[in-house]
Amino acid sequence: MSKDDRNAENPSGRSFPENLAGYFLISSTDLSDPNFYRTVVLIVEHNADGAFGLVVNRQSDVRLGTLLTELEDSPAQDILVQIGGPLQQEYLFVLHAELPGYRASEHATHPAEGVVFEPATEPLVEYLGSAWAGLPAAQRPPFRIYAGYSGWGPGQLETELQQDAWFVHPANAGIVFHPNPEAGWKDALGEKGAFYRIVADTGYMPSMN
């Protein structure tokens, strides 16, 4: 494919890292899919087989104790579950800061500085209900739990990027553990600079030509 052909598919002409693990996908103002409208997705894995990530700014009204009955008598029962994406929402995944006294599972990865990803394993849930819950509230390390995930097949994400469906930005713990997840889209866009702050404030994408 020639450069002109690529620019025809990618109107802004933006380029992207080949491997997007450790980056945010921030939905563009034109992305109308209700699953991803004004979302920020942390890409955890990206390779030739596709991509895997979690929406980090869509909070549900479901409390963790309703899903994990073993936490019913723990402060952890009141953690609000977030929606990681439209796929397999019967599965739970976790993003957390380093947890004192806890050894992460063999499936854990570090998609960004100060952020650990892993499935919600039994030892992790036990830790959450005991050691984490036993700390004073102000000293509890950040912890987010997600139902479902966001996934793309081979080449699918690349096509969406060429179509300008997403802005790309290096991931950071501040947005992942945002105290008000619903503000994450606007704040993540704002981190990209003045032009994107205008987009975030107005919901309109001015011409970059």
CATH architecture label of the largest domain:
3-Layer(aba) Sandwich
Q: What top-tier CATH class of the largest domain fits best?
A: Alpha Beta
The number of strands is 10
Q: Briefly note the structural class of the backbone.
A: alpha+beta
Report the portion of residues in β strands: 25-35%
Major beta sheet summary: 10 strands, mixed
Rg on CA atoms, Å: 18 Å
> Which of globular, elongated, flat, extended, rod-shaped describes the shape?
globular
User: What do we call the CATH topology of the largest domain?
Assistant: VC0467-like
Q: Helical content, roughly?
A: 10-25%
Order of helices and strands: HEEEEHEEEEHEHEHHH
Based on the structure, what is the oligomeric state of the protein chains? single chain
CATH superfamily of the largest domain: VC0467-like
Q: How large is the count of helical segments?
A: 7
Number of domains: 2
Span from first to last CA?
A: 23 Å
Low-pLDDT segments, ≥5 res: 1-11
Mean pLDDT: 90
